[in-house]
Known about the structure:
Oligomer: single chain
Largest sheet: none
Order of helices and strands: HHHHH
Strand content: under 5%
Number of helices: 5
Radius of gyration: 30 Å
Distance between the termini: 71 Å
Amino acid sequence: MKDALKWILLAAGGYLAIRATGITLPTFGGAPDTEPNRVPPGDKTPPVDDSKNTTSTNQTDAAEREVITRRAAAGDAASIQKAVALGIKFNADQWNWYRQQETGTETTVDLFPAGDRAALLTAAEYIARRQSAGLGWLGRRRF
Length: 143
């Protein structure tokens, strides 16, 4: 029994060692193993694997959206335009938080519409509310 187990383990180890070197082993009744990005012998260009590229040029990743949001809340004109174009909306408290993250200055004035603290505002509306409250729209920027 020990000899049979020893030979099975040796065969499995040999198979794994040969497989790790990249040598193609014959298959038994099935299709040969294919590697997704393996270049055929006569082809000089590798195939393109688009399965991992799920973002398009029209989408913005989360980190970039956060940077745009923070800068828009701080009053950066270009970021305000980008935020409006991306349809980014938050309530006044959330905009204040992003502004604080960017400028280090806390806003304690209520900027939400009367009676509707949860009302969603675009970046332009938020800045307009800051201006109408006499707070101005520029702050210390760290970018």
